[in-house]
Amino acid sequence: MATTLITGGTVVTSTGRADADVLVDGERIVAVLQRGSVLLGTDLTAGVDNVIDATGKYVIPGGIDAHTHMSLPFGGTAASDNFETGTRAAAWGGTTTIIDFAVQSHGQKVQDGLATWHGMAAGQCAIDYAFHQIIGDVNPDSLAALRGLPDEGISSYKMFMAYPGVFYSDDAQILRAMQVAADTGMMTMMHAENGPAIDVLVEQLLAQGKSDPYYHGVARAWQMEEEATHRAIMLANLTGAPLYVVHVSAKQAVEQLAAARDNGQNVFGETCPQYLYLSLEDNLGASSEEWGSFEGAKWVCSTPLRSKEEGHQHHMWQSLRTNDIQMVSTDHCPFCMKGQKDLGLGNFSKIPNGIGSVEHRMDLLYQGVVDGQISLERWVEITSTTPARMFGIYGKKGVIQPGADADIVVYDPNGHTSIGYPVDKDGNPTGRSHHMNMDHSAWEGYEIDGHVDTVLSRGKVVVTDRQYVGAKGDGQFVRRGLSQYLI
Amino acid sequence: MATTLITGGTVVTSTGRADADVLVDGERIVAVLQRGSVLLGTDLTAGVDNVIDATGKYVIPGGIDAHTHMSLPFGGTAASDNFETGTRAAAWGGTTTIIDFAVQSHGQKVQDGLATWHGMAAGQCAIDYAFHQIIGDVNPDSLAALRGLPDEGISSYKMFMAYPGVFYSDDAQILRAMQVAADTGMMTMMHAENGPAIDVLVEQLLAQGKSDPYYHGVARAWQMEEEATHRAIMLANLTGAPLYVVHVSAKQAVEQLAAARDNGQNVFGETCPQYLYLSLEDNLGASSEEWGSFEGAKWVCSTPLRSKEEGHQHHMWQSLRTNDIQMVSTDHCPFCMKGQKDLGLGNFSKIPNGIGSVEHRMDLLYQGVVDGQISLERWVEITSTTPARMFGIYGKKGVIQPGADADIVVYDPNGHTSIGYPVDKDGNPTGRSHHMNMDHSAWEGYEIDGHVDTVLSRGKVVVTDRQYVGAKGDGQFVRRGLSQYLI
Amino acid sequence: MATTLITGGTVVTSTGRADADVLVDGERIVAVLQRGSVLLGTDLTAGVDNVIDATGKYVIPGGIDAHTHMSLPFGGTAASDNFETGTRAAAWGGTTTIIDFAVQSHGQKVQDGLATWHGMAAGQCAIDYAFHQIIGDVNPDSLAALRGLPDEGISSYKMFMAYPGVFYSDDAQILRAMQVAADTGMMTMMHAENGPAIDVLVEQLLAQGKSDPYYHGVARAWQMEEEATHRAIMLANLTGAPLYVVHVSAKQAVEQLAAARDNGQNVFGETCPQYLYLSLEDNLGASSEEWGSFEGAKWVCSTPLRSKEEGHQHHMWQSLRTNDIQMVSTDHCPFCMKGQKDLGLGNFSKIPNGIGSVEHRMDLLYQGVVDGQISLERWVEITSTTPARMFGIYGKKGVIQPGADADIVVYDPNGHTSIGYPVDKDGNPTGRSHHMNMDHSAWEGYEIDGHVDTVLSRGKVVVTDRQYVGAKGDGQFVRRGLSQYLI
Amino acid sequence: MATTLITGGTVVTSTGRADADVLVDGERIVAVLQRGSVLLGTDLTAGVDNVIDATGKYVIPGGIDAHTHMSLPFGGTAASDNFETGTRAAAWGGTTTIIDFAVQSHGQKVQDGLATWHGMAAGQCAIDYAFHQIIGDVNPDSLAALRGLPDEGISSYKMFMAYPGVFYSDDAQILRAMQVAADTGMMTMMHAENGPAIDVLVEQLLAQGKSDPYYHGVARAWQMEEEATHRAIMLANLTGAPLYVVHVSAKQAVEQLAAARDNGQNVFGETCPQYLYLSLEDNLGASSEEWGSFEGAKWVCSTPLRSKEEGHQHHMWQSLRTNDIQMVSTDHCPFCMKGQKDLGLGNFSKIPNGIGSVEHRMDLLYQGVVDGQISLERWVEITSTTPARMFGIYGKKGVIQPGADADIVVYDPNGHTSIGYPVDKDGNPTGRSHHMNMDHSAWEGYEIDGHVDTVLSRGKVVVTDRQYVGAKGDGQFVRRGLSQYLI
Ligand SMILES: [Zn+2]
Ligand SMILES: [Zn+2]
Ligand SMILES: [Zn+2]
Ligand SMILES: [Zn+2]
Ligand SMILES: [Zn+2]
Ligand SMILES: [Zn+2]
Ligand SMILES: [Zn+2]
Ligand SMILES: [Zn+2]
C-alpha cells in the first residue's frame, strides 16, 4: 500500500500541540516526527508516495461519533440515512469512525438483532464502524447473550428508561443487566428519561389540544431526565456497573452525574451538539411559512431541546470544560420532513424522534473553540480521544501515534463552512450543502470558522479538495475492548 | 550532540500506550516511531550513537515535581537538600524537572528574592528547574513586580494563609494579588490553612503540656484547611483568578474544590504522597526506641498528616481517580532529625515543617498502579503531563513527542525498589538507600513493585545501571508560560 | 358531663413550658390558667368534679400516632392487633389518636375499601381514630374517588413504590394521583422503596440459600430507598404535590429530603422508633435459643432496620434535631411469631412485614429526651403537635388550649417503665408487660426513665393508677382537614 | 394592678390558632380561656377592670425585635433614635421587646461598655429591653468578662468579621471567644462579611470615582458574605459554639447555613425586612429630585441590599418558609439624611450604615402573610416566639400563656397601614406617618393590609385608638437565660 506524509501541520492531541509531521505506511501511522521530516540525515519526504501539505492547519485524529442510528426503525418509519449515506456524510465532516446501535427488539434474540445490523452495515460504509447493542428485552436468554458480547467485539449495551412498549426496560430488568455489566466490565449506556411518567403528560397535552412540536419539549420535562439519571446512578451504585448516560440535556442531570463522580462512582455523561446550541424556545417553538408551527418538528428528539431561559445550554458548555460531561456524540437519527416527520402533523407524539448531525459534529464543536467555550485540545479530546478510550478502541483510534490506524483529519482554521441549504441572490435554493439523506438541515444557517480539509481513513484519502474520493465499503467493522476508564 | 534510540518499550502517555520507539537527537525528541524503527526501509537503529533497550519496560515522560523547597530557610534552619543534592536525588527517582519556590521575604523586593534563588540554583542542578514565586509581602511595589514575573518565565506565585508573621498574607493582600493574577493569567497557588486560628490552638496545646509531634496534627485541624480552601475559592471567584491549592490533605477540602469546579470555576488541587499513604495515628503518633514519642517529628509537615480513622487517605486516592485532585507533587522540604527536627523537642511548634520525598514520588505513585488505585496512564498524567500543562511547560516537558526535551524515564515494572535504611541480618544498617541529604527516611520500609531503570535529561543519560552518571550543572532554568488550563 | 382540673403540673408545648393548670369541661379543654387556679378571686378547684394532681409531672397533649395498621391483611395473614386491642394498647402508652390506613385493594372501589375500614373500626376503639387512604389501584375511577376524599374527612392518601403485584403503583400512576393531590391539597404519603429492583435481589438471595431474616435487610438496600425517595420528590416537584415520605430509615434518604426542602419544596419525612434504636446487625441478625437465626423475624419490617456500622440510627436522631425529619410514627403492624412470622421460616420473603410499637412510642421518644437526643419540647412536637398540623387535626388535637379536645397525658419523669416480658427470680415469665396482641415484644428489655401516669381521651380518664378504665367504643372517627404546612 | 380581658379574638401561636379569650391580671397573663369567658358558670368578664374587644382580630404575643441599635455611635455620628424615641416607635408597631447591643469599644472594659448602655436605656424605654454584648476587643480581660455575662442576664454576644479598625475581630480572636461560648452556652452572633477584602474594593471603587451609594452594594459583594458565613460556621464547628448569623442577605450565605444545619450543627440565621423587599437596583440605585443619585443613601446598610436580578429576595422568603432562616429582626439603626447620611456625599464609605424599621417589622411581615409568602402562624413564630426561644426569654415573652408577661398585640386584618410621608392632593407633605426619629422613611409608600390595633406591655395598654398612651420608663431591663435551641 501507499505511503503518505502529512507535513507542516500542527498535530493537536487531547493534551497539547506539536509542530510535527505524520508518516503513514499503508493503513497505519508509523511515525510522528520532527517537522521537515529529516531524521538522522534521511529526508523521508523524498521516499513517500504522497505528501499532504498541512501548513497552517491542524492535524488531528479522525472524529469518533459514538452514538448514531443508521436506518433505525422508529415510529413506523426508519432513519433516512443508511450506513452508506450516513457514513459518507460522516467522512465529509471529519468523522472516521461511528459506533452505531444494533437492536434487539422485543421477543427477538440478541444474536439475531446483532446479525441484522452486521448485515445492514457490511460492505456499505465509507468509514470504520462498531456497534453497541441495544437490549430491548431483558430475559434469561438475552442476559446470557449479553454476557457473550465482549467476545464479539461489543463491549457496551444500551437500555431505555423511556419508550414503554418499545425499548423500555423496567428497574428489575435494568438491575439484572447491570449485574452482568458489573461482572464483565461492559459499559451500561442509558437513555435516562422516566418514560411512563412522560407518556402520561403526552397523553394529557394531546387531550388538551396541545399537539405542536413545542409540547414535545414540555412533556419531556427536565425533572424526568434528572430523575431517571439519578435512578440509573443508584442502580449502578448498587450493582457496581459502570454507567454512561447518553444525550444529557438538562443541567440538573449533569449535577447528578457530577455528584456521583465526586462520590467515586464510575459514571459518565455524553451530550450532543443540539443541546449546546439549540433550544425549546428557538427551535421546538419555531414556525415557518412552509410548515407553520410544525416547523419545530425538525428538532424533535429525545431527550428534548431544553429551555434557554433556564440556561441549560450555557451550563452544558461549562460541563464540557469541567469534565462533568466527558464527550460529545450526535445521536444522529435523521428523518425527512416530508413523509417522515410529517407523520406527526397534529400529534407531536407521532413525530419520529431524531436530528441529523453526523456530518457537522466536528465543525460545530470547533466553533466552540473559536467562541472561547473550549480549548483546541479539549475539542480533540471530546470528539475523538475520549470516545476511543471510553469505548475500548483507543490505540487503534483516537490518537496519532505509531501503530494507530491512519484515521486523520487535516482541519483548516482559516477555512469556512456554511451549513444548510444556501439560496442564490434571488432566494432560490442552490442545492443542499450537506450530504446526509435529509430534505432539510437542522443546522440551517450555522456558519463555522473552520473547515475539514482532508480526511484519511486507514491511510486512504477519502475527502480532499472538497470532494469525496472514497468508496462504499471502505469502512470495516471494529471490534472493541473494554472501556479504558474502568478502575 | 549524540543520538539515542529507545527501542522495544511501551510508551505510556496520559491517555494510553503505544508499542513504539523514541528517537532522540541531541537534547530533543525527534520522532516516535514504530517499534523496530524501520521507516520506509531505513533502519534507524543503525545510525544512532546509543541504543537503549526498553523491552518489557515503560517509556514515560520524565517526572515533574511542581513543589519543592531546596535550601528553604524555615524556623531558624534550612531545608537539608540544596539544589545540588536535591535535584540529584530527584534524578535518581525519575524526576527530570522540579519547580521550586523563590521567596520574597517580608520587607524584601520580589526581584531580589528571585535573584537569590537564581543564584542558589544556577550551575548546581542535575536536572532542569523552574521557579514559582512566593509573595511574602504584598505591597504596591511587590504587586508591580508580580505583574512583571511572566516576562521572567515565572507564571505562578504562592501565598500563605498560614504562618502569621512569616509568609502570611491577609485577605486584603490576597485579594490584591489575585486581581493581578486575573489580569495576567498567572496561577495563584495557595497554602490554605487558617494560620491565625491554628496558632491559637498551638499555644493552648503547648500550655496544656501537649508538646509531642502528634499535637501538630491536632492543632492543624481539618476544619481550618477546609475553611481556608473555601475562602481562597471565594476570593478567586470574586476576582476571577485561577486558583491552585497546594498540598491538599483533608477530604473536606477536596469537597470544596470539587464543588467549585462543578460550578465552573478555574480551581485545581494538588496532593502529595504523604497524604495518600501516611497518617496522624501511624506516623505523627509514632514512637521509637531512639526518639520515643518524638519519632513523629519525621512527619511534621503542613498541612499535617490526617487521621486514617476519618478516611482522608482513602478519599484522596479516590480524588485522584475522579480528577477532583489533578496532580501530585512532593512539597519536598527535608530536615534531618539531628540538629534540625530536634529543635522542636518539647515543643512541636519548633519542629521544622517538611518531609523529603522528591526521590520517591514516581515510585510511590507507581505503587498506586500496582495496588489498583490508579491506572498506568493516570500515573503519567498526575506526575508529568498535568504538571507540565498546569504550569506552562507542556510541549517542552511532560510529553514524548517530536520537539519535546528528551526528558525520558525507562521504568521497569518487573524491578523492585526498597526505600529506606536497610539493615543486614544482624540488624546493622547497611547504608542508606536514598540519595537525599537526610539522616532518616520518611518512607522507611516502603517496598515498590517497580524500578526507575534509566533516566534521560535533555537527551543525556543521567541514571543507568543503578548509577548516577550525570553532573552538577546539567540542569538549566526553564522559563514557563501560562497554564494551559485557562479558558 | 364532668369537669376536671389538672393542677400543679408543667404544661409542655412544642415551644416551651408553663407552670399552669388545665381546666376541662366535658370533652373539651376550656382554660389553661395560672397554677393554683384562682382567677380574679374565684377558686376554680372548688367547683370541679375531679382534680388530678400533676405536681412534678408533665402535662402534654395526647400522643398522635399517624401511622398504624390495625388488622391489616398482609402476606396471607393479618396484623394481630385489631382496632380494639390496638387502640387500647395505644391508650396505655399515652397515645390518644391514631391515623390508620384504609385500603383500596387492586380491582376494588376506593369507597368500598374505606367503608370496610370504617366498619372494622366503628365502635371498637379506645381512642379517637382517623384514616389515610391507601390507593392500591390507580385508574380513572379511583382518581375520581380520590378527589372526593377530603369531603369525607380523609385529606391524605398513600401509595407504594414497593410490593409489585400488591400495593405497587408505577410512576405513571403516581404522577396521575399526585396531580389530583396538587389540585386538592391532599398530602401524598409514599412508601419509598424501589420494589421491582428489590424483588430481584430477594429472588437471587433466596436462590443462593440466604433465607434468614437478616437477608431481608440485605435485599432492601439503602440505595433503593434513597432512589425511590428521590423519584417521589421529582414527581412531586413536577406536579406540585406536597409529599410525605413514611418510615424513613436510610440517612441517604434523609439527605434527599433535606435537599428538596432547602430547595423550597413541600416535602416531609417521618421516621419510626425502630429506625432510631434497632439495627440490621443487632436485631435482624439476632439469634435465640427458641428461634435460632429466625429470631430476627421479630424485626422484619419495610423499610428494614439499617446497619448501625453505617451510622443510620445516629443520623436519624440528628435529623429529628435539625427538623430534616419532622415527626415520629410507629408504622404499628404487629404479627405473632407463632402462626404468623413463622410463615417465613426458610424464606424471609414470606415473613409478614411489621413491628408492634403503638404502645411504646411516647416512652421510647421520651427516653430520647433523657438521653439528650432531643429536647422536651421537641418530644411533644414530634409525637403530637406536628402530627396534628401535618394531617389537619390541629386545634382539635395536638395542643392544650381552649376549644381543643381534652386529650391529655400526665407524664411522670420520675416514674419508670420496663418494656417486655419480665421474668421472676427463677427466670419464669411473670406475664407480659405490654397490651398489644403479640406473643413477643420487639422492645423486650428496653427500660424507660419515665412513665405514662394518667391519660384523658376527650375529657374521660382512660388510664390511671396503672389501670385501663376506658371502654371499647370510647373512640370516635375524626374528620381531618388539609395539612397546615401547605403554603 | 388592673385586670384586663381580651375577648372575642383569635389567639394565634406559632403552631396554630384558637378562638379564645386572654385574661390579664396586673403584668401577667393568668389564663387563656374559652371564648365568652364563662368558666364553670362564672362570667369572668364581669369582674375585670377593662375589656378589650378583639372580635375579628388576631391576638398575638408582642413582637420581639432581637436586633436594634439605639443611639449607636457610628462613623462620627450616632443612630438618630435613642432608647426613648426608638422604643416608642417599636410600641407603635406592635413590638414590645427589643434586644439592643451594648458595645465594648476597642480598649474599653466590657463591663464599662455594658454599664454605659444600661445608663442610656434605664428609665427611657416605652417597652421592655434586653442587651446582647458587642465584643469589640478580644483580650484576656474581655474574655473573662464575657464568661461572666450570663450572670448579668446577657446570654449572647456579637462579633464582627467586618469593619477593620472599628469592631473587627480576627479569626484568632473569634476562636477564643467561641471557646468561651462553647463552655458557657452563650450564643455567638456574627456579622459575617469579609471586611478586610471589602475595604480593598471600597478603596478601589472610590479611586475610580465610583462614589455613589450604589457602589456600597457593589463593594460588599455576596461572595464576601458567603465566605465569612462559611468561615464562622467552621470556627463554630471546631469549637462547638452555637452560632447565629445576623442580617443574612445573600442566598448563597443561606445555603451555607442550611448545609451546616443539615450536618447537625447548631447554626441559625436571621434576616431583616429590607432583604425581603428592597434591592440593589431599586433602592441603592435610586435617584430623586432632592438627592439625585445620592437618594440611595437612605438604604445604605451592611450587609447591603442585594440584586433582585440575582433573586436573593425571592430566595430569602423561601428560606423563611423552609426554616433555613429562623427569624426576622430589623437591625434598626436609623440616620437622618440631613446631617447624617449626607456625611457620605461624594464618598459612599462615609455614609452611616443603617436603616430604620423597628416600627414596621410586624406590619411588613404581616404583608408576607397577605401575599402568601408565609402562614399566619409562621408570622408569629419568626417575629416573636422564635426570637424569645433563641435568646432565652421564652415563657416570659414570646407566648400567650399563664405566667407570661402580658405583652400582647391585637392585630386587625381588616385594618390598613400606609407607611411613609403622605402628601395631600397638592403634593404637600401632610406630616410623617411614622414615629421614628428620622427625616425620611426607608419604607415610603409601602401599603400594609393590616393594622396594629392595640398594644399591651406587661399588662398596660400603651397603644390604642391610634394613640400612644404609654409613658417613658414603662419598659424594664429583661434578664435573659440561655437559648432554648441548644441540645
Ligand atoms: Zn436515547
Ligand atoms: Zn440514540
Ligand atoms: Zn505550604
Ligand atoms: Zn510547600
Ligand atoms: Zn410502608
Ligand atoms: Zn405502614
Ligand atoms: Zn452587623
Ligand atoms: Zn446590627
From TrEMBL, chains A, B, C, D:
MF-aspect GO terms: hydrolase activity, acting on carbon-nitrogen (but not peptide) bonds, in cyclic amides; metal ion binding
Domain Amidohydrolase-related as annotated: residue spans: 58-462
One Pfam family in the UniProt entry: Amidohydro_1
Known cofactor(s): Zn(2+)
Keyword Metal-binding: yes
PTM field: Carbamylation allows a single lysine to coordinate two divalent metal cations.
GO cellular component: cytosol
Keywords, comma-separated and alphabetical: Hydrolase, Metal-binding
Modification type N6-carboxylysine: residues: 158
Family under the similarity heading: Belongs to the metallo-dependent hydrolases superfamily. Hydantoinase/dihydropyrimidinase family.
Record-given protein name: Dihydropyrimidinase
Species name: Microterricola gilva
